[in-house]
């Protein structure tokens, strides 16, 4: 950690020193700092949608708004208490007050670089941590959700801050959680700079806590990954997820309750319990994504969280472009198959709620895609291509 801290501090110091010199560079046009937060995504429950409406997205919204008692009788995220469209409406209203938001992280100009910041929590996955007693990895999830967002701009994470709140501080429990945060910072090569522990009697249920995290990274202005040069014919490369990651758990818990199984039961078709499968920590993509960026040809990156492919991939595209996804180009993990079958969830709802086994999507040139797949240094799949039109279609 000391080496990482020194390297990160040196890099930040250089950027600050550069910022003191007069510069004609203007702030990155599509990102604006807003007070103390960037509103890059309202947790996994309220994904920020692109302002560009698409026919495919609209179709998914209609499906997600149907009750589970409607056609097909399948569960939806809205049935589980999470209204993605309500969150999107709130974001649209905020955008009127603070134009320019919409990326996975907020960019702040600093000399010849940008500081890139992101914030998030782990949602109702915490409920499963309380039920399973697995607290050692939830901190990894917390770090992952923020650093995976800021690396989509090509930023190297510098430091992380955490917020831990509980009614009565259980030191042993808090230590387990923070150990996971330290592990997540090590995986993403950043420094745990500090945090806040809030003890609020009577505010949370006994033995429960809440978490949020904040990450800051840095990228040279000329190296920002912003999607502006994406063109039809570019390739979509998918990096595999470790499971559900840290979004969609309100629906997962509803499916679990309906299935009649417990977290201690075996995952049907899998070799682990449902609790172990669902609590698998979120993959931290920082090192592999930065490595792929360094080799060239990466034009855009989408972190697949709330909103799935349907809402997240279009966020990195210029107007007039959409995604064509090859449905059978990767193996959908057993866990997602069970969730869909047990909840009788429609395909469109699954694709808008979960990552379906792909946690990060890179938009790259044809040449870069061949290199990535042939080298095999990072497990990756060619999952689709960029096409004229808008939205995401699955074939």
From TrEMBL:
Pathway: Purine metabolism; IMP biosynthesis via de novo pathway; 5-amino-1-(5-phospho-D-ribosyl)imidazole from N(2)-formyl-N(1)-(5-phospho-D-ribosyl)glycinamide: step 2/2. Signal peptide: none annotated. It comes from the Eukaryota. Keywords: ATP-binding, Ligase, Nucleotide-binding. GO terms for molecular function: ATP binding; phosphoribosylamine-glycine ligase activity; phosphoribosylformylglycinamidine cyclo-ligase activity. It is an enzyme of class 6 (ligase). Residues 55-67 have a biased composition (Low complexity). Residues 53-72 are annotated as: Disordered. GO terms for biological process: 'de novo' IMP biosynthetic process; adenine biosynthetic process. Residues 111-219 form the PurM-like N-terminal domain. It catalyses: 2-formamido-N(1)-(5-O-phospho-beta-D-ribosyl)acetamidine + ATP = 5-amino-1-(5-phospho-beta-D-ribosyl)imidazole + ADP + phosphate + H(+). Residues 232-392 form the PurM-like C-terminal domain. The keyword Nucleotide-binding applies. One of its GO terms (cellular component) is cytosol. Its EC number is 6.3.3.1. Gene3D superfamilies: PurM-like C-terminal domain, PurM-like, N-terminal domain. Belongs to the AIR synthase family. HAMAP family: AIRS (MF_00741). This is phosphoribosylformylglycinamidine cyclo-ligase. The gene is LOC105118382.
């Amino acid at each position: 950690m000391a080496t990482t801290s020194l390297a990160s501090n040196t890099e930040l110091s250089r950027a600050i020193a550069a910022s003191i010199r007069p510069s004609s560079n203007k702030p990155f046009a599509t990102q604006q700092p807003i007070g103390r937060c960037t509103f890059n995504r309202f947790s996994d429950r309220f994904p920020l949608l692109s302002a560009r409406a698409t026919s495919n997205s609209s179709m998914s919204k209609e499906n997600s708004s149907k009750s589970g008692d409607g056609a097909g009788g399948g569960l939806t995220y809205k049935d589980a208490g999470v209204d993605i469209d309500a969150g999107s409406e709130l974001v649209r209203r905020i955008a009127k007050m603070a134009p320019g938001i919409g990326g996975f992280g907020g960019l702040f100009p600093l000399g010849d670089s940008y500081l890139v910041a992101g914030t998030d929590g782990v949602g109702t996955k915490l409920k499963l941590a309380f039920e399973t007693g697995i607290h050692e990895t939830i901190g990894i999830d917390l770090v992952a959700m923020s650093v995976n967002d800021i690396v989509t701009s090509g930023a190297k994470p510098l430091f992380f801050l955490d917020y831990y709140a509980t009614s009565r501080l259980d030191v042993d429990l808090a230590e387990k959680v923070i150990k996971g945060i330290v592990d997540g910072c090590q995986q993403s090569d950043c420094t745990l700079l500090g945090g806040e522990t809030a003890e609020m009697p009577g505010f949370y249920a006994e033995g429960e806590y809440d978490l949020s995290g904040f990450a800051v990274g840095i990228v040279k202005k000329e190296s920002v990954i912003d999607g502006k040069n994406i063109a039809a014919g570019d390739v979509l490369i998918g990096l595999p997820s470790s499971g559900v990651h840290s979004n969609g758990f309100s629906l997962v818990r509803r499916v679990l309750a309906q299935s009649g199984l417990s977290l201690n039961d075996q995952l049907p078709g899998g070799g682990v319990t449902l609790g172990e499968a669902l609590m698998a920590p979120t993959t931290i993509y920082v090192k592999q994504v930065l490595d792929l960026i360094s080799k060239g040809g990466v034009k855009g990156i989408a972190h697949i969280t709330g909103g799935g492919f349907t809402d997240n991939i279009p966020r990195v595209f210029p107007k007039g472009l959409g995604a064509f996804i090859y449905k059978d180009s990767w193996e959908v993990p057993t866990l997602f198959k069970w969730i869909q079958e047990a909840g009788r969830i429609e395909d469109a709802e699954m694709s808008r709620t979960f990552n379906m086994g792909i946690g990060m999507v890179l938009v790259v040139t044809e040449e870069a895609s061949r290199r990535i797949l042939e080298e095999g240094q990072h497990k990756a799949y060619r999952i689709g291509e960029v096409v004229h039109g808008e939205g995401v279609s699955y074939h």
